[in-house]
Design a protein that fits this description.
Elements: H1 20-29, H2 35-47, H3 59-75, H4 80-87, H5 89-99, H6 104-123, H7 132-135, E1 140-144, E2 160-163, E3 170-173, E4 181-182, E5 193-203, E6 206-216, E7 218-219, E8 222-223, E9 227-231, E10 243-247, E11 250-252, E12 264-265, E13 271-272, H8 278-285, H9 288-317, E14 319-321, E15 328-330, H10 335-364, H11 370-401, H12 416-425, H13 430-444, H14 469-493, H15 499-532, H16 536-554, H17 558-563, H18 569-586, H19 590-595, H20 601-605
Parallel strand pairs: 1-5, 2-5
Antiparallel strand pairs: 2-3, 3-11, 4-10, 5-6, 7-8, 9-10, 12-13, 14-15
Helix pairs in contact: 1-16, 2-5, 3-6, 4-6, 5-6, 5-9, 6-9, 9-10, 9-11, 9-12, 10-11, 10-15, 10-16, 10-18, 11-12, 11-13, 11-15, 13-15, 14-15, 14-16, 15-16, 16-18
Length: 620
């Protein structure tokens, strides 16, 4: 008879006295043999005094400081190294991981200058141009794509670049207020700037689609003729000089158009392209947005890890009354406190391993294979949504666990949730990119555990199976299949002749399918990391942490899994005690687990609540 007897308590985790297990975890988190090359220079950079918290600055002063720090970044990669950075996906994403939690403005500006601006130039026959002004940051690059009336439907943008037959150049113009470029950093802050502007190419009044145009915006004396810039109101998070920008018949030379195989103008002004329609040409022109998703994911990932590191340290330093009169114990002694932090910690490890896996897929894919590129771009979009949403939840949780101390900017945590909000919206609003992925995944693949034997059928092995990582992983794959089946049924049965109505009937289940797809991908990345652990202690810790991640993510789906026969009532009853036992096993290792995040001691030393003497910091 099926009973709800919980499995045995997980074994304790002995850690190596020499810190070898923590180093092994850090190597797994930070690219192993590539750790020094990919992460080392950025970690050293933010440890310096130039990136220390500076209190009392106005928004304008903070923006100026972000540009000053961006130049510090560029000092490490000036010249050809800056071009190399634009093509090195791992180092570029790592730059965002390490700068985001110390200065969200630098994270934003670096993404724009190195990825969207410099990367776009290089992707469009950039080798033919002199890029010295941009690699030296004599001029800062910016990227103007979205418009006031066109955000996620940017393919419909209205800014035009009209071919001038007499000169061979172009006339860049904003035809109406809705076509003003929305939110680029185009003010005079940070010095002279040049933009890559997305505009609709008109040749003899014929719309050839959207292309990019290199457009100087300002010099030492101010904005150039025909460039109109209006500062936007202050937004939440670290301030950046966001603006509305428009063009009044600005003349550009012939070489302003960024060209590649997807679009060139011949000597007679005819468009030559290897792509058959305007939408494909547009997507190729703004292809750097995909790498931008990896950068935004990386930036929010670093913020989530920093928030957790601070909150965990504070939980050990903050003393509260104990049950026995006259005694005091740390906050971390309470399951209500360390349990929440551990759940966030397990998710942050899963996020990191997923991000590494997606980066590996991006670096290894064949861009000439359309199907392969489509699959990896969809995975990047799904991962971006999941990672940034999880990062926000983690940062909010960490802030709350620090109580009132978490509200002070000096403690390094209060602005992180707001900065993560920017990542959620940037490079494609999460819900929109997930909706696109959902529409594709309904039929793009077959969800489920795969072609092997069904490990979950009939709830094999009873409650004890809840400690089996492969069993738990397959349960998540079954959740994805359940929602895919529902989405397919809704799509087939939706109202005919009404595309919006049909999608509305389908979208709820399809989005649940995408969320399950993200969790399954994260589970696979986590289990791969467990298999690569270099020491017994690090492997055992990761096994428990992976188990916690998989168990906690199953909780909302037990009803579906029970109804489908993939869980038994006894296993559902055993879910809580199994999770609680895993928390008990991991609780003594909270600090070592965040030590593996490898935050610079200089950063932690200057963050008051990350230190035992935080109570005296208000006296200085």
């Amino acid at each position: 008879m099926d009973t709800a007897v919980p499995p045995a308590q997980p074994p304790a985790v002995p850690l190596a006295d020499d810190g070898g297990d923590i180093r092994a975890l850090a190597d797994l988190l930070f690219d192993g043999d590539e750790r020094a090359r990919v992460h080392g220079e950025w970690r050293r950079l933010i440890a310096g005094p130039a990136f220390a918290h500076r209190p009392g600055l106005s928004p304008a002063e903070r923006t100026a400081l972000s540009y000053e720090r961006l130049r510090r970044v560029n000092d490490t990669v000036a010249g050809p190294a800056a071009e190399a950075l634009a093509y090195d996906a791992r180092r570029l994403a790592a730059l965002h991981e390490w700068t985001g939690f110390v200065d969200g403005g630098v994270c934003t500006l670096a993404s724009i200058h190195y990825n969207l601006f410099l990367g776009s130039l290089l992707d469009h026959d950039g080798y033919r141009r002199d890029l010295t002004d941009y690699t030296s940051m004599k001029r800062t690059g910016t990227f103007l794509c979205t418009e006031l009336a066109h955000g996620n439907d940017v393919a419909a943008l209205e800014t035009v670049a009209v071919l001038d037959r007499e000169t061979g150049g172009f006339v860049l113009h904003t035809p109406n207020p809705g076509a003003r470029k929305f939110m680029p950093n185009t003010s005079l802050a940070g010095g002279p700037k040049t933009a890559v502007v997305a505009a609709r190419l008109l040749v003899d009044d014929r719309d050839q689609g959207v292309f990019l145009f290199l457009t100087p915006l300002s010099d030492a004396d101010g904005h150039l003729p025909g460039i109109h810039v209006q500062r936007l109101p202050e937004r939440t998070g670290t301030p950046v000089d966001h603006c509305l920008t428009s063009f009044d018949h600005v003349r550009l030379p012939r070489e302003a158009m960024l060209e590649a195989a997807h679009g060139r103008l011949d000597k007679d002004g005819r468009l030559v392209s290897n792509l058959g329609n305007r939408r494909k040409r547009f997507l190729r022109s703004v292809g750097r947005v995909t790498m931008g998703k990896l950068c935004m994911s990386g930036g929010t990932l670093g913020m989530a890890r920093a928030a957790l590191a601070i909150a965990v340290r504070y939980a050990h330093h903050r003393q509260v009354a104990a049950p026995k009169a006259g005694e005091r114990i740390p906050l971390s002694a309470h399951r209500t406190h360390h349990g929440r932090l551990l759940r966030s910690l397990a998710t942050s490890y899963a996020m990191t391993f997923l991000h590494r896996e997606v980066l590996d897929r991006w670096c290894a894919h064949d861009p000439a294979d359309p199907r392969q590129r489509e699959e990896v771009e969809r995975l990047i979009a799904v991962a971006k949504g999941w990672i940034t949403w999880q990062a926000r939840d983690i940062a909010v949780e960490a802030r709350e666990r620090c109580g009132a101390q978490g509200l002070f900017p000096a403690n390094g945590i209060s602005e992180l949730p707001l900065n993560i909000e920017g990542g959620i919206t940037a490079e494609g609003d999460n819900l929109v990119i997930w909706a696109k992925a959902a529409s594709e995944l309904v039929f793009a693949h077959e969800a489920g555990p795969g072609s092997g034997p069904d490990r979950t059928a009939g709830g094999a092995a009873g409650p004890a199976a809840l400690t089996d990582l492969g069993f738990l992983r397959d349960l998540h794959a079954h959740v994805e299949r359940i929602w895919q089946t529902r989405a397919r049924a809704a799509l087939r049965n939706g109202p005919s002749g009404d595309p919006i109505g049909r999608w509305n009937e389908t979208s709820g289940a399809a989005l649940e399918m995408v969320a399950a797809h993200a969790r399954t991908a994260a589970a696979d990345a986590f289990l791969s990391a467990v298999a690569r652990a270099a020491t017994p202690g690090s492997r055992l810790l990761l096994e428990h942490l992976a188990r916690l991640f998989l168990l906690q993510e199953l909780r909302p789906h037990t009803g579906d899994l029970l109804a489908a026969g993939h869980l038994t009532p006894a296993q559902v009853e055993a879910l809580h005690p199994t999770t609680d036992g895993t928390l008990a096993t991991l609780a003594p290792h909270l600090l070592p687990l965040v030590d593996a995040f490898d935050l610079p001691p200089e950063f932690l030393t200057t963050t008051p609540i990350a230190n035992p003497d935080y109570l005296t910091r208000f006296d200085t």
